[in-house]
Amino acid sequence: MLAQEAVRSDVGGGVAEAPRRPRTRIQREKQDRILDAALEVFSTHGFRGATIDQIAEAAGMSKPNLLYYFPRKEEIHKRLIAGLLDMWLAPLREMDAAGDPIPEIRSYIRRKLEMARDFPRESRLFANEMLQGAPRTVDMLEGELKTLVDEKAGVIRGWMEQGKLSRADPYHLIFSIWATTQHYADFDVQVRAVLGPNRNGEGRFDDAARYLEQLFMFGLAPSHSAGPNFRG
Amino acid sequence: MLAQEAVRSDVGGGVAEAPRRPRTRIQREKQDRILDAALEVFSTHGFRGATIDQIAEAAGMSKPNLLYYFPRKEEIHKRLIAGLLDMWLAPLREMDAAGDPIPEIRSYIRRKLEMARDFPRESRLFANEMLQGAPRTVDMLEGELKTLVDEKAGVIRGWMEQGKLSRADPYHLIFSIWATTQHYADFDVQVRAVLGPNRNGEGRFDDAARYLEQLFMFGLAPSHSAGPNFRG
DNA sequence: GAGAATTTTGACCAATTGGAAAAACGTTAG
DNA sequence: CTAACGTTTTTCCAATTGGTCAAAATTCTC
Description:
2 copies of one chain form a homodimer.
Chain A: H1 2-13, H2 25-49, H3 52-59, H4 63-69, H5 73-93, H6 101-118, H7 120-131, H8 138-161, H9 170-186, H10 188-195, H11 203-220
Helix pairs in contact in A: 2-3, 2-5, 2-7, 5-8, 6-9, 6-11, 7-9
Chain A binds a DNA duplex through residues 1-4, 6-7, 24, 26-27, 30, 51-53, 61-65, 67-68, 71-73.
């Protein structure tokens, strides 16, 4: 039992200490399998709707065995969210104030859309957490996330003041990029249903990319005098 | 028990028959209270994560009493979804092929954004259902919804062919309107967290409205020659 | 106000859930 | 080999869950 105690605090990550990487090869393997299975289950059922049994089955192990690696359900979820946010914000982090605004934004959109295509479960996990009021995530939102967005919104505003970009609220610009790209992961069923079986290959992401490029480039490019149809 | 039987099939809506409006005043009242409470709970926890006890408590009645009006949990959810889709699609239904494209789309966006502001729970309920793969909704998506969207996409394409609108994929145009507007309901926590306590009044919806108007009007207005920054 | 119909309650149930304990099993260093 | 350690399984538990049922309380109709 001492062994268990020792392992648990190492494996699961103590309450106070940062979650350490697992030591042995087998620990890393199992933990990864659990996290992958949990991502699957949490992302489709949300935290409350997901059961440990489901996760254990998806990971191909027994419930107590799973609980040996993550002593509580919440621990798994926390680890997923923590790992997620990092990768999720990477594209925004890479937006470079020194770069050209239009290509920077264009490539930000493209990368976000690629993430929606390649990591839909991560997107859904995050969406689920937001829908539920982010009970286990508010801190990160108001800390890490807000800090980063504030910074990048400043960058965008700078571009606008230099006349390199049409003037618009930078925060809502970022929101609209999040919304339009993540939509293809979060509302995948709906998108598929509407597009029907014909247009349904992975080609829908290419169509989306083309459309979003047009929307945002014309919506944001400078040098268009206020058109005949826009009364701001 | 005969009485109960009779009431149940009337109140809950039989399997085969369309759900009838409740007869007595008291039935209507209670059912509405239940549906309202259920909307609250389902929209934040999803179907699996919501419990009848929670709903009953939110509705201010005992669980068996609630089950007297809706014999199963799924029945409540079904009713909510069914009622929802109608109101949810109303703005799109009103988009008039005979009208002027730009104002039509502009007012579609405005109305959708108002719905996100005034009915966030409905938006979240729907989002939750989509995230979970729409197990109880696919039929409607592939039926009612697809039909309507196909029709309106046709209308939009018509406008584009008449040169009244910039050429773009009408389906993805509709998706992007859904995504950007519903985002303010579904990701409300995130939006609030990022905007911070200062900019946090209901004014954020006005900002969003202004921003989205600009984005979509410039992104879609005709008559702009392909700008210097867009290589399609 | 009596009688019927409707509504509400309290007690109960079987299944599921998150989790604990400890014994059994493997693995590996000495 | 064997003792120590790490891993897995079996068994178990209390709480929660969706739902039933009959009796009690209330409301409605005449």
